Structure to design on (105 residues):
């Protein structure tokens, strides 16, 4: 059975800033992001700093959108579709006034 794929968001309850990521394994990547944040190892330094400053209880991690698998079972690479879905969500969130965590502080 193939894992669900799509876009997930980590959102601060303090300032409504967010971090979004696309993945072919939503559950695995969300668990990995949570583990990295808890260990102080997340690659997004601004998100990591605020996670440490505000605590995990001040963040939500949720699925924004699922991407369905192609009917063609031979297809295994969904990077382009996921990247497009991420761009759509980044634009939608930006239009709603949501601010994104910067990569570096």
């Amino acid at each position: 059975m193939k894992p669900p794929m799509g876009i997930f968001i980590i959102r601060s309850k303090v300032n409504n800033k967010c971090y979004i990521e696309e993945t072919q394994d939503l559950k695995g990547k969300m668990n990995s992001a949570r583990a990295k944040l808890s260990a102080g190892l997340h690659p997004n330094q601004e998100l990591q700093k605020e996670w440490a400053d505000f605590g995990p209880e001040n963040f939500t991690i949720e699925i924004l959108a699922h991407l369905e698998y192609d009917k063609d079972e031979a297809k295994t690479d969904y990077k382009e579709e996921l990247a497009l879905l991420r761009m759509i969500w980044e634009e939608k969130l930006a239009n709603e006034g949501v601010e994104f965590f910067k990569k570096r502080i």
User: Anything to note?
Assistant: The first strand starts at residue 5 and ends at 12. The chain has one domain: 5-95. The two ends are 40 Å apart (CA to CA). The helical segments are 26-39, 45-54, 79-95.
